[in-house]
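Quick log. Single chain, no ligands specified.
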Amino acid sequence: MLHEIAEVTRGFLGTLDEDLRAAAVRPVSDDDLRRRWAYTPGPRPGVRYGDLDRAQRKAVHRLLARVLSPHAYAQVTAVMALEDVLDDREGGGRDRHQGDYWTVLLGEPGDEPYGWRVEGHHLSVSVVVAEGRVSATPFFLGANPARTTYRGRAVSQPLRLEEELARELLDRMGRTARGLAVVADTPPPDLRTGNSPRVGDVEPAGVAVGQLDRGSRELLVGLVRYYLDRLTGDLADEEFDALDLGRLHFAWEGSTRRGEGHYYRVQGPELLIEYDNTANDANHAHSVWRRRSGDFGEDLLAAHRAAVGHA
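-> predicted structure:
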């Protein structure tokens, strides 16, 4: 896997001329840039997808497809395409376009550590490779419109399972556990951690995994696994094996009725998953998977610096 990630990264670099290469590549030691992420519209460091030729665009997609699972890669491409749908709904006033995504490389393969980020409105995938391991959080996906329908039936809903799996858990856990899980009648307007560079001390809330029956525990673990399975099999397995599943919490805020604003989060010692669908009459969804000490490859880079310092 490490060899394949390095290969597609070199492949992308090989498509760039001198000017594009200068715009695309920044040092991995630029901690401010590495930690500065966003899921709102607007320019980013790096090279803009819409300014690239066919071969260069395909090389960007190879970066994503090498790290992402097939279903997550499909979600990413759907999220990008929604920019034109949203632009049409808004009458073109904000000049949105699916070309408005940026790729920045942090260092280059051959001199570990290195990494890259592909980012724009409702998409942020940050990858760092160091010490023979791969970090890929924060991993943000959003969708506006979250759901496009025909006569009440969904035609497009990129984050459908992010909502449905959580609802299945909420429905299955029973009245007592649900009373613990639902911690507020009104949801927050956005993810509680937003685009903060660090997760910080977000207190666990809601129902603890130990307070759930066996079937509900399996559904909670399945929800967590779904988020981790945004990555390819080996990478997702490594992340899953590192979790302390006995210390998970699940919290829901807002309405439990479909079509009304809601939010949930799943927490563990190193895990934070957040999802909200509140804006635009609850048709504008955000979701993120984060690692408390490992976002932006912080843990891997710390291990690398320690190893180099003791070499």
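Residues 240 and 294 are 14 Å apart (CA to CA).
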